[in-house]
Protein: Lipoprotein
Organism: Psychrobacter glaciei
Amino acid sequence: MAKRLISMMAIASIWALTGCNNAADSVDATDQTPEAAATEANSSTPKGEPAADAIDWSLVDSGEKPADPTNYQYPFALDSQNVRDYADYFKVDAATAQHNLTISMASNEALSKALDQLSETYVSHEVTDGNEMTLIIHTTPDVAASSYDYVLSDDFAKGLVLPIVIQPDGKKGDAKAHSEMVE
């Protein structure tokens, strides 16, 4: 069972990319225009310093409407081995495990759209597990901190929401190179 869990987590971590920053204000796509988000992000720059580059969330937006996660037809059965293993490992209930597994498998969709804008300012990313899954993208300090609720459009997780947080902290991930991994 441990090998199955490790294999499942390795696959999920390859596709999974989220995080959480309590210091950043959440921005809902329907609540704020990209221009207002960019203005807000840049308005926090101290006087005399150049304004940070802000991500244009309208270029990331999928155009999908959020689905109701309580009535969602998940691709993983609630009592499946993958869901049980995830729930046990991350100490969450089965419904949260089912939801997080689905989002993590589809999270590359959101990451690739954000990376289209971040290019050389991208440093690393991570996906938080637990009760609130979030994609955290670490960038160089010249990018404005912001957040966005991305609605997935791929059929696998269509309509599910993945919060994205841009953290301009320059933090590198803890991932090891293939040669450093223990067999």
Remarks:
- The first strand starts at residue 122 and ends at 127.
- The chain has one domain: 2-39+53-171.
- Confidence is low (pLDDT under 50) at residues 1-51, 176-183.
